[in-house]
Write a structure and sequence with these properties.
Elements: E1 8-9, E2 19-24, E3 28-33, H1 35-42, E4 48-53, H2 73-87, E5 88-98, H3 112-122, E6 127-135, H4 144-149, E7 158-165, H5 183-191, E8 196-197, E9 203-204, E10 220-222, H6 231-238, H7 251-260, E11 266-269, H8 276-283, E12 287-292, H9 295-301
Parallel strand pairs: 3-12, 4-5, 4-11, 6-10, 11-12
Antiparallel strand pairs: 1-2, 2-3, 5-7, 6-7, 8-9
Helix pairs in contact: 1-2, 2-3
């Protein structure tokens, strides 16, 4: 992706209040720094086109990459939000991938990420342009106690992605992120469609049957998080460096970078982790700044920028791409006597038995 000559890797010692470069390319810089301090010192007002990030989630249990308790999350996030509101252009975007959390010892969900969303809109003036949902088809059944053992919840497989902006009309184009037509739509285009008013009241005109080559995507993004043998992971293993445990797949930032930015726009990730956002921005010709407070993860991130160019992107040429199907409700429903409801709502653990 970047030649060794175009890449600068800077060793050194930094504190949480300093700003130390760790990676520099032709288009971007990754800093070992505390991001609030970095934004205060390095980024001008109204200078950023997109903040694309996945902050540490508000979890009950601490992770090695650092995260605030769900109960304290909004207070912890406010200094970042203040800087986001300052540095974003009025037509820029703030995109936050954030997973939910379960309340300790209970089969109920925390509301911390919705409280954060309300804080960003009510206190800092952001507008919710749209909410997206990232469905990870490969996510293991969790939380195990409620899903696998007591069988009183289904597996948690979706993250919220909030797309916000200082202005109700951030720049964007869904033509940048089109998807292939479904089989049913392909059949409709082939056989023709009769314009009519649906029972719901929607008037479906003859324009509905126009073949535009691709479909406008929904706000559900299906991407399996199954990275296991990437260049990044091989680089970390070969150099005895830790792999960041909470990476989002590159298709997530790529979706939004394509959707809401132009070439040479500035993309910032204040919770960079292994610098996925920087890698994608570099490939797509966007300027970028990443910051990460844990230096060990930036050492591994160097491997993202020392690899051959990515293969050509798929275009609207009929090439097949990987897709995922989700079963409709009722595909395997049954309410036989062998599966009675738990009278106490799952308060007590069931006795072990072999059962689907």
């Amino acid at each position: 992706m970047v030649s060794q000559e175009a890449l600068t890797i800077r060793p050194g010692i930094a504190t949480s209040t300093s700003t130390e470069e760790r990676i520099r390319t032709n288009l971007g810089v990754a800093y070992w720094a505390e991001s609030v301090s970095l934004m205060e010192r390095l980024l001008d007002d109204n200078s950023v086109d997109l903040i694309m990030t996945s902050p540490p989630f508000g979890l009950v249990r601490k992770k090695e990459y650092g995260n605030a308790d769900a109960s304290d999350y909004v207070d912890w996030f406010r200094p970042f939000a203040k800087q986001f509101a300052r540095i974003l252009k009025s037509n820029g975007s703030l995109v936050i991938d954030i997973g939910g959390a379960w309340n300790a010892g209970k089969p109920t969900k925390s509301l911390y990420h919705y409280e954060l969303l309300l804080c960003l809109c009510k206190e800092f003036g952001f507008h919710l342009a749209q909410e997206f949902f990232w469905w990870n088809p490969s996510r293991l059944p969790s939380p195990a106690e409620w899903v696998n053992v007591r069988r009183i919840r289904v597996k948690d497989a979706v993250n919220n992605i909030f797309w916000l902006s200082p202005d109700p009309f951030p720049k964007a184009s869904n033509r940048r992120v089109l998807t292939p037509y479904s089989k049913s739509m392909e059949g409709l285009l082939e056989s023709g469609y009769r314009a009519k008013r649906r029972p719901s009241g929607h008037d479906i005109s003859k324009n509905f049957a126009t073949d535009n080559g691709a479909a406008i995507p929904p706000n559900l993004i299906a991407v399996a998080n199954t990275e296991s043998n990437s260049h990044y992971m091989r680089y970390c293993n070969e150099n005895d460096l830790p792999v960041h445990p909470a990476r989002f797949p590159s298709l997530i930032p790529e979706y939004f970078i394509r959707f809401v930015t132009d070439r040479n726009d500035l993309v910032v990730d204040p919770f960079a982790g292994s610098c996925v956002t920087g890698e994608v921005s570099e490939r797509l010709g966007r300027r970028w700044i990443c910051s990460e407070i844990e230096e060990k993860y930036l050492l591994g991130a160097q491997g993202r920028f020392l690899r051959p160019s990515s293969p050509k992107q798929l275009r609207l040429t009929g090439e097949k791409v990987e897709s995922y199907n989700i079963q409709r409700p009722g595909a395997l429903w049954h309410d036989s006597p062998q599966t009675p409801l738990s009278a106490d709502g799952g308060r007590s653990r069931p006795k072990k038995r072999n059962q689907v």
